[in-house]
């Protein structure tokens, strides 16, 4: 796997680059990512970012095979296939074929072909105890952590001592923090053949659904429909996952960054016959191609800039038709480098609010067309901010009104928002008020 990634980098330096995004818990093995995009050496690019990953679970080798398959297709067909070329030119694609190199080592050595976890030394004895050590990496993310997996170290689904205790999981989190993926497919496989050939997406939570549910469902349904199953009598199934399945990558990425994140259970079991691997990957790749094409066809994209300086702003962007309060999911922010936010919503008209402290709120309706990407730039106007010692004169001069419309006769002693005469918000921050 390591050789293959470096081989691609050497052969296609103009479109891919190998990154080390972290190191494993026990053996300090590098966790490698292959980035595929035009100008891969330019770190920050204003393109939709996508993450594919494999082998959170040590024995689920198809995840690694799938990432390598995608990498090979995107690079080798770049110059011959115009669709592939458009993926590479206009998207920023990240592949992490092996999130769990330590655990995979155990399966490779033949010590336990069904091994799932990493190799955290749970009892600190310096030995590898396959009956006690290791954390299930896909239960270690910080979303409803306490509800996920098991708290028994010897359990196959041990969630770890605390969220993000494992460096492998931190590596994915830190990459996501930088890249704010709009899409993630995590490739897995299930030991139980009846549970295979499925795609899970976020989420159902008790009796309610994720705010983007309709949009994620539409995307996942079509992704799954594009993948023919092993028996040739149907396709993969698309199923909503539960939020209460704590500590999962897909739920965390959706919760924290708004990433449309899926878990794709490939095939029906861990180890398909060697001669089948290519066909399995080829079929899943049809689904992957659909996803990438869909993103290039249309999505919501807004840039937020400061009206005075023209500089990008990190601001909250609410889509009122797909909004949930911060108790459920974190606010969706533009990235601070480009001031950009993207979301794969269905074509249609949406009501948007852009908010940032110290700036006037902007509300507008936006159309997401069916077959092109409409780029919208919003300028936020800084509110009048009076910061410093608070004196009567300032109020008199500004003629402030409180939010109920009453004129402030005596100066207010609290920090807060008031109206000026022009009905413009004035945000007052009092530092060390003087009577
Ligand atoms: Zn898995």
Describe this structure in words.
The chain is α/β, with parallel strands linked by helices and 435 residues long. It has 3 domains: 2-297, Aminopeptidase, CATH 3.40.630.10; 300-380, Immunoglobulin-like (Sandwich); 384-430, no CATH class. Helices cover 24% and strands 24% of the residues. The protein is built from 9 helices and 18 strands. The chain has helices spanning 2-11, 62-76, 82-90, 101-108, 167-179, 213-225, 249-257, 277-297, 392-398, and strands at residues 16-23, 30-36, 49-54, 92-96, 183-188, 198-205, 208-209, 237-242, 260-265, 300-306, 316-319, 340-343, 348-355, 362-368, 375-380, 384-388, 416-419, 425-430. The strands form 4 sheets. Strands 1, 2, 3, 4, 5, 6, 7, 8 and 9 form a 9-stranded mixed β-sheet that branches. Helix 2 crosses helix 8. It is globular. Zinc ion binds at residues 56-57, 60, 138, 188.
Give the arrangement of secondary structure elements.
Layout: H1 2-11, E1 16-23, E2 30-36, E3 49-54, H2 62-76, H3 82-90, E4 92-96, H4 101-108, H5 167-179, E5 183-188, E6 198-205, E7 208-209, H6 213-225, E8 237-242, H7 249-257, E9 260-265, H8 277-297, E10 300-306, E11 316-319, E12 340-343, E13 348-355, E14 362-368, E15 375-380, E16 384-388, H9 392-398, E17 416-419, E18 425-430
Helix pairs in contact: 2-8, 6-8
Bound molecules: zinc ion.
């Amino acid at each position: 796997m390591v050789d293959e990634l470096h081989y691609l980098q050497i052969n296609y330096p103009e479109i891919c680059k190998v990154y080390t995004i972290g190191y494993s818990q026990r053996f300090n093995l590098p966790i490698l990512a292959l980035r595929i995009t035009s100008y891969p050496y330019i770190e920050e690019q204003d393109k939709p970012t996508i993450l594919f990953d494999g082998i959170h679970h040590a024995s689920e080798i198809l995840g690694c095979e799938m990432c390598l398959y995608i990498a090979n297709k995107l690079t080798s067909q770049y110059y011959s296939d115009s669709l592939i070329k458009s993926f590479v030119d206009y998207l920023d694609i990240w592949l992490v074929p092996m999130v769990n190199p330590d655990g995979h080592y155990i399966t490779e050595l033949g010590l336990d072909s069904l091994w799932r976890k990493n190799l955290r030394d749970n009892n600190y004895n310096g030995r590898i105890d396959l009956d006690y050590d290791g954390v299930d990496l896909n239960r270690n993310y910080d979303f409803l952590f306490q509800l996920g997996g098991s708290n028994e170290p010897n359990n196959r689904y041990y969630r770890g001592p605390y969220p993000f205790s494992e460096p492998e999981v931190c590596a994915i989190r830190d990459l996501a923090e930088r890249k704010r993926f709009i899409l993630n497919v995590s490739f897995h496989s299930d030991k139980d053949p009846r549970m295979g050939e499925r795609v899970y997406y976020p989420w159902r939570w008790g009796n309610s659904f994720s705010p983007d549910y309709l949009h994620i469902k539409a995307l996942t349904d079509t992704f799954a429909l594009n993948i023919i199953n092993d028996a040739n009598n149907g396709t993969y199934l698309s199923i909503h996952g539960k939020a209460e399945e704590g500590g999962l990558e897909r739920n965390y990425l959706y919760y924290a960054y708004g990433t449309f994140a899926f878990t794709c259970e490939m095939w029906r079991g861990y180890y398909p016959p060697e001669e089948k691997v290519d066909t399995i990957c080829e079929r899943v790749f049809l689904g992957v191609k659909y996803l990438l094409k869909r993103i290039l066809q249309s999505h919501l994209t807004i840039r937020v800039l400061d009206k005075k300086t023209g500089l990008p702003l990190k601001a909250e962007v609410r889509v009122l038709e797909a909004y949930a309060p911060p108790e459920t999911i974190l606010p969706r922010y533009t990235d601070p480098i480009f001031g950009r936010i993207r979301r794969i919503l269905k074509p249609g008209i949406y009501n948007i609010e852009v908010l940032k402290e110290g700036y006037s709120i902007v509300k507008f309706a936006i159309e997401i067309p069916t077959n092109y990407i409409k780029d919208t730039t919003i300028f936020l106007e800084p509110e009048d901010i009076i910061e410093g010692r608070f004196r009567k004169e300032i109020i008199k001069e500004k003629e402030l009104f409180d939010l109920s419309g009453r004129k402030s006769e005596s100066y207010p002693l609290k920090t807060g928002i008031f109206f000026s005469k022009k009905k413009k918000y004035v945000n007052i921050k009092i530092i060390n008020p003087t009577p």
